Amino acid sequence: MRGHKLFIGEKLRALREEHRLTQARFAERLGISTSYLNQLENNQRHATATVLLGLAEHFSVDIASLSRQDSDRLLATLTEVFADPLLKDRSPSSRELRLASQNSPAVAMALVSMHQALRRAHDQLAELDDTITRAGVIVQATSYEQVRDYFHFNDNYIHELDLAAESLSEQLFDASASDRDQLLMEHLRRQHKVSIGIDLADNETIRTYDPETRQLHLNRRHPASTRAFQMAHQIALLEQADTMNDIIAKAGFGNAEADKVCRIGLANYFAGALLMPYTRFQKSARELRHDLVDMADRFQTSLEQVSHRLSTLQRPGLPGVPIFFARLDRAGNITKRHSATRLQFARFGSACPLWNAHRAFESPGRIIRQLAETPDGVQYLCLACTVDKPTGGFKDPTQQYALALGCEYRFKDEFVYSDNFAGQPLENFEPIGISCRICEREHCVQRALPPLKRALTIDQNSRELMPYSLED
After folding, report:
1. Which of 114, 152, 307, 326 is 20 to 30 A from 334, alpha carbon to alpha carbon?
2. pLDDT tens digits, residue range 364-409?
C-alpha cells in the first residue's frame, strides 16, 4: 500500500455501525484514541499500518479490499456530471469532488441520480414533437441505464447469486464437464419438468419458454455456448426467483420496467456464474494467465462470456485481477461496460478514438494489444477483439461488436498478452482519454470536441490542427 495515502473514513464508519460500537469502544479495540478515530472517519487523517492491522486482527477485514480505489468510479461519474454545460458556472474543484466521493458517497450518488433525472427530463422535452412510439423508446432506454448503473456501482458482482450458482455448479458438473449441455437438460427435466427442444431456426429468437406447457425452445443456429447459457438463464428464473425479488426490491428502481430489465440482468449473471463458477474460474485465470481463448476452451464458453465474467471477479476475500470490460458497436456505442480499475467509461458521448477498441474492426478475428496511458498518469494493458453473431443465411445481417478489456500495467505479469511488452519505455504508452468532452489533453490530434471545463482561444489569423487553443 505504499505510494498513496489510504482514506477509509466511510468504510470505518460503516464497520463500526455494523458492530454497533461507539467511537470510544471502536477506538479502544483498534488501540487508538477516540479523537484520532473521529479524524479517520471524516477522512482528515489517512489510515496507518497500525489501524489496518487492527482491523484485520479484531474485525477480520481483508486489508487488500481496502486498497482498491472504490471512490474512483464515483469520482469519475461526478466529474462528468459537473462537466455538463448546465452546471458550468457551479463546477467544484477536483479536490472538492474527491472529498465528496470519499466523505459523502450517499450525497454524491443522490447528485448523480438528480442529474440523470434532469437529463431524462431534457430528453423528453426535446422529443415532444416526436411520436408516442419514439417516447416509449426513450423510457425503455432509461430503464436499461438505471440497471446498468446498478451493476456498475455494485462492482458488477452479486454475492448471493454468485454463491448459489457456484454451489449448483459443484453439484451438476465435474472438473471436465464434457457432457455439460446434457447435464443442464437433465437438471431442467428432473427438477422442473421442463422439456427442451433445439428447434428454433428464425433469425431473431434465441430462446422461448412457455410456463404453461413447461417447454423451453432454443435456436439451433446459435453455438452450443449460447444454448448452454440460455438453459442456465432459465434455471435462474425458476430457482432464484425469491433471491432476485429481494435484490430488485432493495435496488428500489421505482418502476416495473426497470425491475423486469434487472431480472434479466440478474438471471444472466447467475448463468455466467453457473457455467464459470467463481473459485475454479479465478484459479484458471491465474493458471492460464488470462489467455481468453484457452479459458473459453476450458469452460466451453464464448470469448465474450469469458471477458464479461473476468470483470465480475470481485468477491470479498478472493478478488481477481481488477479488469475493465466493454462491448462496442461499429458506431462507438458502448452496449456493455464495467470497470474495476481506475479507468472509467464515459456515460455520455463517444469513447476516445485513440483507444484500440475501435481498431479491432480493422483486424477481425485477432486479439490486438495496446499500452495506453490516461491523463491521470495511470498506465494500462488494453486488449480488443471482434465477435460476430450471425443471425441467418448469406443475405441476413451479422451483428459485430468489439470487446475491450484490460488491466493496469502493474498487473501485466498476470496476462500472457504482456510477454513481449515487459520493460518497454514510457514513450511507448499511447495517450488515451475517457471522452473529448471531459479530457484535458491539450494537444490531441483526434480531439473532436473542446473540453467543457476549459475556455477557448480562437485566432482568425492562425490555424493549427484544431481551430482553437485552450486557455490555462
Report:
1. 114
2. 989 999 999 988 888 999 999 999 887 677 777 788 999 999 999 9
Q: How far apart are CA 439 and CA 441, in angstroms?
A: 6
Could you tell me the pLDDT band of residue 139, with boundaries at 50, 70 and 90?
very low
d(CA 245, CA 171): 24
Secondary structure letter of residue 396 according to DSSP: S
Cell of 58: 479484531
417's CB contacts (< 8 A; 6+ apart) are 290, 367, 369, 381, 383
Name the strand (E) or helix (H) holding 198: strand 195-200
| DSSP designation for 91 | P
Q: 276-315 burial, b for 16+ CB within 10 Å, e for fewer?
A: bbbebbbebbeeeebbbeebbebbbbbbbbbbbbbbbbbb
Q: What is the pTM of this model?
A: 0.73
Kind of pairing, strands 430-431 and 368-373? parallel
* Cα–Cα dist 346/352, whole Å: 9
Element (H, E) at 368: strand 368-373
Which residue type does 32 have? I
- 398-408 sheet: strands from edge to edge: 334-339, 324-328, 398-408, 379-390, 368-373, 430-431
Mean pLDDT of the chain: 83
pLDDT of 74 > 80? The answer is no
Give just the sign of the alpha carbon dihedral 280, 271, 299, 290: negative
